[in-house]
Write a structure and sequence with these properties.
Elements lengths: L2 H15 L12 H10 L5 H14 L3 H5 L3 H8 L5 H17 L9 H4 L7 H10 L10 H10 L8 H11 L5 H14 L18 H10 L1
Helix pairs in contact: 2-3, 5-6, 9-11
Length: 216
Amino acid sequence: MRKKERYSRVLAFFEGQNPVPETELEYSSAYELIVAVVLSAQCTDTRVNLITPGFFKAFPDEKVLAAANVNDVFEKIKSCSYPNNKAKNLIGMAKMLVEKFNCMVPSNIEELQELPGVGRKTANVISSVVYQQPTMAVDTHIFRVAARIGLTTNARNPYETEMQLVKYIPEEKIRFAHHWLLLHGRYICKARNPLCTECGLNEQCKYFERLGSKRN
């Protein structure tokens, strides 16, 4: 199967299953989403969604967070991974939003990455989800799923995965494809014990093809 055909079939399957996918992080503003995405690094969305209601009650906007004590922020997020670093980054991010960006979360990838705690993946999430830009955030789920299905070839890191995906996915579908691949990796194409027998992509999947070859 040629790569373009594989992409076409995979995207058609995802679109048929979930035409307008959304992030599972709970938020009501760009500020809330960027905080949630920073917290979600090496932490589950479920855990983040338990933390953020209390966090946003204590720190409802950039100005309040910018003026916060790091120990107070730590206390609100200590149940997530790496709370010490995240507390410092969140305060630093809020200060930059206030001082440089006039309390507006930027849409530009390069400007977003200037913010403490914001790498390329987080920047792409904000650009895609908040501003509906055709950016592809690659996390461990997407890196794994894209390689297994055969959407990427010999991608050595998230950036190479991102570049291959955006090359073949139609621009208007890129922001949806991020969620499709992520959710597929989270619930079906798991790192350990993927649910291949429950997957609707068997005919398009190189990983499943290899499993069949081994059985035979």
